[in-house]
């Protein structure tokens, strides 16, 4: 059979889930194709390829675009089987009722997709496949156990992306070494994921070091690679045997700078030594809020200011750059709380910080809390993939929302140029939101990411093209919002 995967590229974020699913399809002997909607006309490509199955993967912020596209596809090609997986259908399976998809996939998709391909090929019903939800089985669908041995999976089919989009030429490549997270951050899906799969296996699992090395070597042998971005929610929990083995083998066999994510309350000097020895260039540890009570009670991130500052200073000691996120516009908080996040980031000497405006995603504890408290009702049409849009919560005034949007753009600029802090906080965040701030943010971001966060060895022209592409995407989001 022919399977066509459809996705919309956003700022060089690689949909590794699609690559994993594509690998399953190829292993079964099927033909796979890709349509990147920024550069190809889906309807035209469908008429050329004549696929049997169309596959989408979506977060909540981008789902509305795929809903519209799938409706147009079904009007022109009513017989093609369409399915969506990813976070949005997993935590909002009710979406199947109001859309023209034949099915959605809830949770881990490799085994489910393999079974679905066989059912479609044999013209059998898909209603009884675990993890597959249809209009007929929404109230009675079942979940299979989590995949315990991740090494049993085929290597992700990166050729799907790298042979068909500019992502292949960009020398930064993303890798995921594990699945799951044991923490209960209220804005995140992981707590809901563990509840969804309660009693169905270990939620936190990791590939062996050898599997990870083989995966990177496979990528390195086919496409340009000068920097590795490990996209695990938490790459390292401690200076354990896995990290010691990784440090040695990565240095000997890969020997490229890399980026990881972890938590400030986990990071120790022993861990940093191992990571530095392996070639770690950047560590991302989210602060999320500069106010301890908000971190503890609203976000369930019980780490102290001292832990956050010390973890970042350890990185500074070993000359490892740092990247953090601070969520602003949290429900029933103040602008002063948002400024506290900027202040703590400066005290921590972070290299780069993002200040995304809170989005209340369905399936998350904090998302539901905003609904229960009356400050929001779910409206997926108003959700975006960018976190610099106006807050969706009704607990803020227009003036406060304007200041939040300005802080989301100018906060990162202050991190790089601290002398601008007083000008920004006392004056600039209170003037009308404008394109100059957007331009300043992206220009600063291009400079700091290219110079410190990601050493990709791209030339200035390539970096400039990425910069222009980001600006264009932001402009299109702005125009779509107005429309």
SSE layout and pairings?
Blueprint: E1 2-7, H1 16-27, E2 31-36, H2 42-49, E3 53-57, H3 60-76, E4 81-85, H4 87-91, E5 103-105, H5 110-121, E6 132-133, H6 159-162, E7 172-175, E8 178-179, H7 190-196, E9 205-206, H8 209-222, E10 227-230, H9 241-253, E11 258-262, H10 269-278, E12 280-285, H11 292-298, H12 305-317, E13 321-325, H13 335-347, E14 352-354, H14 365-372, H15 398-416, H16 421-426, H17 435-453, H18 460-482
Parallel strand pairs: 1-2, 1-3, 3-4, 4-5, 7-10, 10-11, 11-12, 12-13, 13-14
Antiparallel strand pairs: 5-6, 8-9
Helix pairs in contact: 1-5, 8-9, 9-10, 13-15, 15-17, 17-18
Describe this structure in words.
- This protein is an alpha/beta fold and 483 residues long.
- The chain folds into two domains: 2-133, Cobalamin-binding domain (Rossmann fold), CATH 3.40.50; 169-482, tm_1862 like domain (pyruvate-formate lyase- activating enzyme).
- Helices cover 43% and strands 12% of the residues.
- Helix 1 (16-27) links the parallel strand 1 (2-7) and strand 2 (31-36).
- Helix 1 (16-27) packs across helix 5 (110-121), helix 9 runs parallel beside helix 10 and helix 17 packs antiparallel against helix 18.
- Mean pLDDT is 91; it is low at 477-483.
